Structures are given as C-alpha cells and as structure tokens.
Amino acid sequence: MSESVLTNTRYGKDLVRVFRVVRDGEFHQVVEYNVTVLLEGDIETSYSVADNSVIVATDSMKNITYYLAKISPHILSPERFALHLGTHIVSRYAHIHRAFVTLEKLRWSRIALGANDHPHPHSFIRDGNDRQTVEVEVDASAGKDKLSAKVTSGITDLLVLKSGGSAFHGFIRDEYTTLREVDDRVLSTSVDLTYTFAPLSLISPTDDKKLDFIVPEGFALGGVWDAVNVATRARTATLDIFALDSSASVQATLFKMGQRVIAENAGVESVTYNLPNKHYIPVDMKYIGVDNTTPANAEVFVPVSAPSGLISATISRK
C-alpha cells in the first residue's frame, strides 16, 4: 500500500449535551450547551499501525467536558468555557497540539411573573429557537508555554420577518426573468451570523492538573474577553437594522448589519452573514375579481420553503 500516505488526522467527541445550574441561594443562573471536542496531535500511529496508546478516548473527552462544566468559573460565558476546555486538554496531554471546541448555546430566559413582572429567581422559558455558536481553536504547536487561540462566535437560526419596508426592483431583466419588481414586500430570513475575533495569546496553566485558566485583567472591550457583551450587541445590531432599514435588497441590508457589528466591537475582525430568503408569495385571487397581488393590497400569502434565495457576504475591518 505504498501508493498512499496519511496526510491529516483529527478525532473527538460530538454532541456532548451539558446543562449547568449556577446557584446563589434561591437565585439561579442556567446554561445549556451542545459541545463538540476534536483533537490533533501525534496520533497518526493509531490510524496507520493500530496503536491505541496515543488515543485520548472520546469518552474521556466527554468526562473532561462535564468536569470542567462543574468546576469552571467561566461556564456562563461560552467563549471562555470553550477556551478553558481547549487549554486544559492541550496542556494536559503532551502529544496533543490542537484542540477544536465547538459550542451551541440554547436559549433559556428568566420567566417574568404576570402579577408584578418581576423575574422569577429559578424559573425559565425557551423564548426562541435561535442559538449562540462558538468555535474555538487552541493551538499548542509552538510549545505548551506559547498557547494561542482563534475564536469565532455567532448566532444561527434567528428567524425574522417584516411585513413592509422592503422593496426589490432594478435587477436584470431578460428572457429568463419572471419575477415581478415590487416597491414593498414581506421580507423574512433565518439569520446565520458569525464574527471572528482577532487571534489571542493564552496564559498557560501552571498547576499540576492543568486546570487553571486565567482571564487577563484590564482587557479591551469589544474583544474575546468581552464576548458576552459582543454577542448582545451583535444580536441587537442585526435586529435593529433588519427592522429599521428601508431595504432595497437583502444584500444592502446585510452590509449595513455587518458594518454596525464591526463599528461597535473593536476586537472583531470580520463578520459573515448567510441569509436565506423565506418567501411569502401573494395568493393570486383574480379568478374571483380580488386584487391580492399588488403590494398595497397583498394581505394573504403562501409561505414557500423551497426553492429560496441565499444571500451571503463577509464584511472585514480595514
């Protein structure tokens, strides 16, 4: 079999589901993650000569994830928790050089009581299907005392709709064109947003079990260490621009969203949006003499899931 060579290896544990309660008396905070951990390193012989002595079992990766979820003071921040998890693994195992940690954070919001609108101390509601996403790479290839990291965060499946304030006209018309030009329409999309932070150096743990994780003091706002606030600003910017922009196209609105996320977060280097159209087609009622197709009179629509437009772009800092 000399015609072939092993050129890349990576393995790990997928779909580790974690729910953590952080208690402060009767006041609780909760967080739920779906976690994936993948590793690279000196593991080629496990593939090429069936040498299992280099394998950190994927079941161990699951157990490490649960243990850090219990002890990490950073559990409520998905970026910090992912960095803590990746840092521990590459520091603990000498032959592991890179850890890739992916998190999905599910929504749990505190229930506001109807009698007084006060938030309940330990009752929650899932108030949306959108999820916060985090992708972290912790790199120890330059040495265990020279750790670096890359972090990309975002939002996925944020479903939005506006019933007016969106036009689409002036596009190319030729023999293939059947789409009508409109000065007002229903605009809906499921937002998939990612934003990439500037690369960072990490402080290597010095304790025997490599469990320490140090967040630097005096960190700049708008960067990785401020990621909880960055996530809030990115979501708010996306929703504000979507609602308030007098949209000439999905492309034009997307660009304004990305510009605002970059402007409000100094540590973000680039922003990528993927915006699939969720089409709502006016029902043609001319057969009974009713106008339901001109924009001013269109009130009954058929939701159409496919085929759909897909608009994507990346906006980067100069």
Short description:
The protein is α+β, with helices and mostly antiparallel strands. The chain is 21% helix and 35% strand.
Structural class: alpha+beta
The amount of helix comes to 10-25%
Total DSSP E strands: 13
What fraction of the residues are assigned to beta strands by DSSP? 25-35%
Tally of alpha and pi helices: 5
Low-confidence blocks of residues? none
Mean pLDDT: 96
C-alpha geometry? globular
Biggest sheet, open or closed, and with what strands and sense? 9 strands, antiparallel
Please provide a written account of the structure:
By secondary structure, the chain is an alpha+beta fold. 21% of the residues lie in helices and 35% in strands. It contains 5 helices and 13 strands. The chain has helices at 44-48, 58-71, 78-92, 227-244, 250-264; strands at 11-24, 27-41, 96-105, 109-112, 119-125, 131-139, 148-162, 187-197, 200-201, 268-276, 279-282, 301-304, 310-316. Strands 1, 2, 3, 6, 7, 8, 9, 10 and 13 form a 9-stranded antiparallel β-sheet that branches. Helix 2 (58-71) crosses helix 3 (78-92) and helix 4 (227-244) runs antiparallel to helix 5. It starts with 10 loop residues before the first strand and ends with a strand. The mean pLDDT is 96.
Task: Present the secondary structure layout.
Blueprint: E1 11-24, E2 27-41, H1 44-48, H2 58-71, H3 78-92, E3 96-105, E4 109-112, E5 119-125, E6 131-139, E7 148-162, E8 187-197, E9 200-201, H4 227-244, H5 250-264, E10 268-276, E11 279-282, E12 301-304, E13 310-316
Helix pairs in contact: 2-3, 4-5
